[in-house]
Structures are given as C-alpha cells and as structure tokens.
C-alpha cells in the first residue's frame, strides 16, 4: 500500500501555511570539501512571491556550500505545534535550488518588519538574501498524511 496520498487543496494549504509561518528552518547543503551533507539552522521568511527566503552570512559554512552547489534541502516544522509527540506534527521537506537574491530595499524592509532584531546584522557587508526556490517537496501532515508536492503546490497564487 502506497503511504502517499493524492495531493489536494488541503495539503497545498497546509504546506503554504508552514512556509509562511516559519521564522527558522533546517537547511541542508553539500559540503564542498567532502560532498557530505551539512545541516544548519537558519532564519527564514518568504519573499513576495512565496518563495522561502533566507538572510545568510557569507562567512557561514552553508553559504560557501550553496555558492559551490546550489542544491539544497529545507525542513520546515509546524511553528504552532508546541506540545505532544513531535512525530505527529506537520513538517515539510523541500528540495530547493538556492539563488542569491538581488539587492532590494523593499525585501530588506519586509524582512525587518517581521524580524526587527535582524537590524543588527542585515546591513553588514557579508550578509545577503538567498531565495530557496522549491523544486519539489514531501509534506508529512501528521500520522498517515503524506503528500508529494511540486513547486507550484508550494507557492501562494497571486503574490
């Protein structure tokens, strides 16, 4: 029996809610020296079109890894689920392509509106925004609720 359910509007809505509510995520990249997975925690928001957006330091190992190989994985967990068995909480695993975002004052201002504490480092010369453009994803919406999603399932229409 295939544990993956047909993708429906409820699954799409849950995936989009997880992306939009996230303030941090787990980023997987490939270490350029060894090719081994490198997993780190990053601050996360969404860009104006619903693409996950990170503000990364050029000094960080994950940034150097993304510069060498833009393939990335992103794990977003349910920010609203604080109690109970974490294995029953919704989570979204995204296969993404990392792209440096062009400098944009409006993007910076939107980031700071959601994370005012980032004012301390947002303008440092080694920081820049990266778009983590979804290619596909696996949504675990809780016990027995797994879905494959494509890029369009994840992006919010009309943004």
- How many angstroms does the end-to-end distance come to? 37 Å
Structural category is alpha+beta
Low-confidence stretches: none
Outline: globular
Q: How large is the share of residues in beta strands?
A: 35-45%
Largest sheet: 9 strands, mixed
Number of strands: 9
How many H/I helical runs?
A: 4
Assembly category: single chain
Q: Give the averaged pLDDT, no decimals.
A: 92
Helix content: 10-25%
What integer value in Å does the Rg equal? 16 Å
SSE order, one letter for each helix or strand: EHEEEEHEEHEEH
Walkthrough of the structure:
- The protein is α+β, with helices and mostly antiparallel strands and 159 residues long.
- The chain is built from four helices and nine strands.
- Strands 1, 2, 3, 4, 5, 6, 7, 8 and 9 form a nine-stranded mixed β-sheet that branches.
- The radius of gyration is 16 Å and the shape is globular.
- The chain starts with a strand and ends in a 5-residue tail after the last helix.
- The relative contact order is 0.24.
Gist of the model:
By secondary structure, this protein is an alpha+beta fold. The protein contains four helices and nine strands.
How are the secondary structure elements laid out?
Blueprint: E1 4-5, H1 9-21, E2 24-30, E3 37-43, E4 45-46, E5 52-57, H2 61-68, E6 71-77, E7 91-100, H3 105-114, E8 127-140, E9 146-150, H4 151-154
Parallel strand pairs: 1-9
Antiparallel strand pairs: 2-3, 2-6, 4-5, 5-8, 6-7, 7-8, 8-9
Could you name the key traits of this structure?
about 160 residues; 4 helices; globular; alpha+beta; 9 strands
